[in-house]
Amino acid sequence: MNQNETQWDRFLKIRTSGRDDSHADQYRYPYEPTAYVVLERLANSGLIRKNNTLLDYGTGKGRVCFYLSYQTRCKTIGIEYDERIYQGATENKETAVSGNRTSFILSSAENYELPPEVNRCYFFNPFSLEILHSVLARIYESYYENQREILLFFYYPSEEYISCLMTEEQLMFYDEIDTSDLFPGEDKRERIMIFEVIL
Q1: What integer best gives the mean pLDDT of the chain?
Q2: Which stretches make up the Methyltransferase domain (predicted)?
Q3: Residue 160 domain flag
Q4: CA distance 186 to 104
């Protein structure tokens, strides 16, 4: 497992491993990269393609952006509020094999206005429900201004995230990607839940 992580980092010419909770608090959760095996399953789902632009909330050092833009040829934007971790993402961009399809923004997620080309969003528990509500409001705003198919991917969602998402009127459950077989144990959270923004 760890060997796979190192190999992909090396291949993509980036450094994204390790957890960082130096600036975590009750609203913003620690940086922890999504395992490459999970991203591989997402890339193979066919739901992210060359003509998509994916926004990664709480991008950290940019692993999701670099990997998915390499594997699917999509464009990616990573949002990160922690200046020090954001620095890591921009340094990675200089060496990354797919750096030209990736951009990073230093901003808090709730203040970031979605560009009209964004039609895929990825979340790996980056922040609290309060912030999630503000972020969803921004996504809906962008959708109303420029209607298009927008899919939201939630990896390893908490119970509170799920109950919030299931009660959002502008979201429809779209599909689920099971990732539980990739890790030992029976972890019910080990999945990617997908929602579509609707009118």
Answers
A1: 93
A2: 49-114
A3: yes
A4: 35
